[in-house]
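Work Package 4 report. The design task specified in the project plan requires that, given a folded chain encoded as structure tokens, an amino acid be chosen for each position. We show below one input record used in the internal validation round.
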């Protein structure tokens, strides 16, 4: 994919010419992504500085002012915020959240005018008044940050800090306005799809390693393997954050439906010719910016990448994921704590979880699954026991994904995402992720969601309107197996 011919000017050189500004920004971004960096020269605000902040915020809330004054004022506010201590940044956000709300009297007057209007033109004017009254002075202040080259990026950082704060309820008014603005500014139409490769800038590749949230990138060799000729990595970028990937997806071009992520990422496996690949496996989707949580981008990314791959590789016939089931272990552990659930388990499975009462049923189950060979050689289980355990766990996972819901949505967050994009549940894979994280979150299970180009829209609407979850006959059989295995009391 063609890269931009010219790189945008770094926003960090525009807001402040001070030598320490870049260091401050790196410190803040480092803390956001869990890296400890030098504390720099940050110092808590004194009374005079807080008086200045309050005055600047009050002036910024005014609906009338010159653009020059607005820019100068919001630049000063941003510099004060970025150079503040973590505690002072929280107080800064608290001031924004506590004040600058909608004027309820003005809103009620606008609503009354609309209710009393009779002519269409009068109703139109009244609607405009309502829309204007609904825009809080807080939103007006936040929107002014858009005037600065790194203003939007700073608001993304601010929201990330807000989401990590302990008192979410107190900051809710600010969170609501931030999410509303960021949703508008990060609309899919403003995002640029870029392919990342081994020839991408080293700083960007380092961020991929840092931001990968599904399958840890353990080394530069691991990263190089994921960017080889039979692999692809695509990311969304925003023009105001040109050096920061917002969300990225990793894809393997293979000739079969992948059922094990360790084999997929094995560096010793031979590189294949991508032109001969028949299947694209999406095995990792990572949101790189915590401050954009809740801003829909993933569904657009997958559909854009599917379209790009179909264009680049005409031989591709299947587009599917190899996805984790992050909530399965939690759900199963809670279920196993209920005697009524355990009473319906197959006897062979129930006996495997009986033992030392100091160890929970789930812990005993996890011990067996994690080291099946050891459990078998020690006489805890037989080969037939392990086969029964596999069948039971696969059927329970099918039930969890398709029938355990919050309202009409799947309980599992990854399932909710893919069903919401129009995918279908194709296959559940045994011992597909044997990493510590995979065993901890889903007892090693992973699933394939299938993106059928001619069925995506129909399946999306069936899910959105009726809560219907598309799935294969193979998965449907697992539900039947589950019913057959359960003991009816």
């Amino acid at each position: 994919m063609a890269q931009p011919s010219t790189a945008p000017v770094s926003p960090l050189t525009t807001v402040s010419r001070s030598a320490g500004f870049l260091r401050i920004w790196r410190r803040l971004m480092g803390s956001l992504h869990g890296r400890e960096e030098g504390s720099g020269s940050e110092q808590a605000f004194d009374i005079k500085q807080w008086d200045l902040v309050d005055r600047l915020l009050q002036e910024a809330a005014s609906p009338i002012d010159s653009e020059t004054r607005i820019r100068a004022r919001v630049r000063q506010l941003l510099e004060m915020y970025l150079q503040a201590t973590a505690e002072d940044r929280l107080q800064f956000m608290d001031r924004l959240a506590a004040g600058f709300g909608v004027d309820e009297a003005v809103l009620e007057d606008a609503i009354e005018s609309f209710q009393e209007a009779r002519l269409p033109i009068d109703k139109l004017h009244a609607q405009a008044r309502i829309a204007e009254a609904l825009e809080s002075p807080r939103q007006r202040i936040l929107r002014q940050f858009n005037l600065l080259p790194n203003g939007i990026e700073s608001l993304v950082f601010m929201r990330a800090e807000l989401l990590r704060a302990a008192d979410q309820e107190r900051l809710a008014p600010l969170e609501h306005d931030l999410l509303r603005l960021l949703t508008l500014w990060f609309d899919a139409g403003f995002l640029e799809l870029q392919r990342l490769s081994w020839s991408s800038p080293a700083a960007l590749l380092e961020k991929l390693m840092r931001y990968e949230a599904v399958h840890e990138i353990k080394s530069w060799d691991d990263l190089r393997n994921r960017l080889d000729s039979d692999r692809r990595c695509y990311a969304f970028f925003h023009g105001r954050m040109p050096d920061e990937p917002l969300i990225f997806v990793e894809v393997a071009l293979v000739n079969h439906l992948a059922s094990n992520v360790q084999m997929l990422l094995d560096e010793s496996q031979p590189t294949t010719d991508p032109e001969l690949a028949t299947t694209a496996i999406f095995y990792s989707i990572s949101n790189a910016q915590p401050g954009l949580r809740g801003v829909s981008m993933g569904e657009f990314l997958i559909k854009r990448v599917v379209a790009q791959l179909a264009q680049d590789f005409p031989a591709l016939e299947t587009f599917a994921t190899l996805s984790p089931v992050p909530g399965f272990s939690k759900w199963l552990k809670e279920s196993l704590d209920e005697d009524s659930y355990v009473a319906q388990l197959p006897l062979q499975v129930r006996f495997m979880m009986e033992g030392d009462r100091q160890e929970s049923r789930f812990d005993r189950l996890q011990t067996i699954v994690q080291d099946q060979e050891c459990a078998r050689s020690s006489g805890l289980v037989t080969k037939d026991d392990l086969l029964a355990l596999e069948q039971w766990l696969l059927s329970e996972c099918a039930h969890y994904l398709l029938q355990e819901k919050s309202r009409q949505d799947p309980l599992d967050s990854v399932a909710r995402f893919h069903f919401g994009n129009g995918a279908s549940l194709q296959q559940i894979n045994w011992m597909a992720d044997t990493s510590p994280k995979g065993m901890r979150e889903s007892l090693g299970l992973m699933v394939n969601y299938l993106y059928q180009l001619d069925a995506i829209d129909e399946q999306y609407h069936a899910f959105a309107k009726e809560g219907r979850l598309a799935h294969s006959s193979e998965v449907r059989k697992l539900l039947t197996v589950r019913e057959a295995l359960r003991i009816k009391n």
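The first strand starts at residue 191 and ends at 196. Validation will be extended to a larger panel in the next phase.
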